[in-house]
Automatic annotation (TrEMBL):
GO terms for molecular function: oxidoreductase activity. SUPFAM superfamilies: GroES-like, NAD(P)-binding Rossmann-fold domains. InterPro entries: ADH-like_N (IPR013154), ER (IPR020843), GroES-like_sf (IPR011032), NAD(P)-bd_dom_sf (IPR036291), YIM1/Zinc_Alcohol_DH_Fams (IPR050700). The lineage of its organism: Bacteria, Pseudomonadati, Bacteroidota, Cytophagia, Cytophagales. Pfam families: ADH_N (PF08240), ADH_zinc_N_2 (PF13602). This is NADPH:quinone reductase. Residues 10-311 form the Enoyl reductase (ER) domain.
Length: 313
């Protein structure tokens, strides 16, 4: 099968296309012929030697990626919910060794869901790590309720554009930060209020927020503390949260912490249902063929992606 391996951390030239044996399917796994893969910031960071690289740097061959949509070609003996020919999608083995940059992937059945028939493999692959992060942060962790004021940073990005749609569906008042160029985009997603991070001070634009989703990092987390009400929550998703910032949030009566998404097939079923009912939609910024994986990484690396970058096989 075709696969892309990472010989060593570094630039996109270290993503090497090669031929490998088709994976062996475990008793609780399914073998999926991959049709589409989505690219995330963590893919880029891991390729460069950061992100998840330290967790499996000794593995050989090291195959990046976690987000897939495709067709089941074989099932393990303990697998009953799926059968050969089913179209499925999911985030596989995160935060472990996902091995998604390949023509075939052996995925735990517990990590995937049936793909809605009304959406493409590209749209499904996009709605995996990013959509799951939004779901687990807003629903599982924060328990967003109708009327809550929710602030979503980087609202036009991968996680952000799903988070806006989910928060709106949950009945929240949704405040979004993005560039002025993306104001119309996030407004169409459901934003009630837009803040241009390039020209507006956060503290001047909003106060008494119940929940903040920070997809940018420490500086944004720090500035968000001043706009959250006591008892509110800030969840940071890019990398670890400095202890000093977590302590600052605590001193202000705010729950502030780092959150890492986990593979979960039951959550994927909820995402599938929302996609099927058009409650959430995937916005695909650009699609690349498999042999242009490096170009997909370079685009993701710009930090200017609206929605998701997808690679097709």
């Amino acid at each position: 099968m075709k696969a892309i391996i990472l010989k060593e951390p570094g630039g996109v030239e270290n993503l090497i296309e090669t031929e490998l044996a088709i994976p062996v399917v475990g008793d609780d796994d399914v073998l999926i012929q991959v049709k589409a893969i989505s690219i995330n910031p963590v893919d880029v960071k891991t390729r460069a030697g950061k992100g998840m690289y330290g967790r499996f740097k000794e593995l050989n061959p090291l195959i990046l990626g976690w987000d897939i949509s495709g067709v089941i070609t074989e099932t393990g003996k303990n697998v009953s919910p799926f059968k050969k020919g089913d179209e499925v999608f999911g985030m596989v083995n995160f935060p472990g060794h996902g091995k998604a940059y390949a023509e075939y992937i052996a995925a735990p059945a517990a990590h995937i869901a049936l793909k809605p028939s009304g959406i493409s493999h590209e749209e499904a692959a996009a709605a995996t790590l990013a959509a799951l992060t939004a779901w687990q942060a807003l629903v599982t962790k924060a328990n967003i309720q109708p009327g809550n004021k929710v602030l979503i940073h980087a609202a036009s990005g991968g996680v952000g554009h799903y988070a806006v749609q989910l928060a709106k569906h949950l009945g929240a008042y949704v405040i979004c930060t993005s560039s002025a160029a993306n104001k119309e985009f996030v407004s169409r997603l459901g934003a009630d209020q837009h803040i241009d991070y390039q020209s507006q001070r956060l503290q001047d634009a909003v106060q008494d927020v119940d929940f903040v989703l920070d997809a940018i990092g420490a500086d944004v987390f720090d500035s968000s503390i001043s706009v959250v009400k006591r008892g509110g929550t800030i969840i940071s998703i890019p990398g670890g949260l400095p202890e000093a910032l977590a302590e600052k949030a605590k001193q202000n009566g705010i729950n502030g912490y780092f959150f890492l998404v986990q593979s979960n097939g039951e959550d994927m079923k909820r995402i599938a249902d929302f996609l099927d009912r058009k409650i959430i939609r995937s916005h695909i910024h650009q699609t690349f063929p498999f042999h242009d994986m490096g170009k997909a990484h370079l685009l993701q690396e710009t930090g200017r992606v609206k929605g998701k970058v997808v690679v097709t096989l």
